[in-house]
Design a protein that fits this description.
By secondary structure, the protein is mostly beta strands. The chain has four helices and 23 strands.
Amino acid sequence: MKKIITILLTLLISVMALSQDKNSIIKLTDGNKYRVKIILLDLDRITYETENDIMRSTKIEEVEFVETENDGFVFYQYDKEEHDIYNETLKSISENEPMELIKQGGKVFIPISAKDYKTVLGRFFIKDKISESNLWQVVDTEYEAEFILEYYFEEKGRDKNYFVLKTRDGAEFYRSKNILTSSSYIPMNEAKKSVEKLYKKVDLFHRIETADNSTFVYQMDEIEKMIKEPIKRKSSGSNSRSGLQSGYKGIIELGYQIGVGEKGKNRLKLNIINGYQINPHLSLGLGTGLRYYLYKDAVLIPIFADLRVSFMSKNVLPYFSLGVGYSFSADNSFAGVGVILEPSIGVSFKVSKKFAINLGGGYEMQRMTLYKYNYNKDTYSERKYISGAISINVGISF
């Protein structure tokens, strides 16, 4: 336990001159805190007068702290700086978004002392109500709190009670509606009934989060009706979590093709496709690229139409694609080579509304012409054939 100032200056210290009014705060180790007038402070006991003009004397070890509202006197059994949570972050929230302070589990301080005993009784009971509800964490001192709740009872015509919420620097950011109470408020059981009526009527707060993540805080008596409905999402061709979004669709695809059959040849593949996503399941495009034949460094340039069908509307989309076109030889003045056809299947993994990673495989058939020279007859003959290859593909859609 730590003291900020030393009070052992003399065997007896009289501090009667510290305060002519009840402007000192005393917090006892049992959790109670009072606004008092300090009468006497010595080595063993502290004597003070409460707001109800009751004289009390308490052992010094039962006092957690005493603080006057002037700068002349402060006594702590612990270091206030180690307990005070009011840092720059909390200060910024308090100034700019104070409603964020009242989230469930927030730390609230409820002062008990007040000018009239009716309000004091009400504060005792509202403190108990909040502690029972587990809505907020009720702390013992304002230094441990993120915000402050003050309950009030007013005798103006028909009796009313209400509460206000304040930031740590005293700025009011919420006031509940006045709730009519019983006129026979004086007995303790009536004080409890009054708070229960306020608590039930106000039900403190109901936090409502809208579909766009905005948060609003209302008292329950301000809400006429709440119903539960499924969220209706915008459907401009697709949903951010279902299918692909309508509009331009670009595809870049790389692959390695393993030749199969008598005339099958290994080659490298590049496709660049510009297309349009018609709906979440269907796209059409026009593409080009190259095929690099490894066995004799030959390069073909295909031009083809691309059709793609997605079978599901989720973040992982199985698809079927069909490419149909015609290839030209880059090594022979772009002379025509033959029809190219490639059916394939794969899976698209959605990363965002427009971006996906594609993995797939297929079978490509390239129609080609084989020219053979007959030395004896000095003539050429030609034979049409299909060069087939199994294709392993990886790419992106955007």
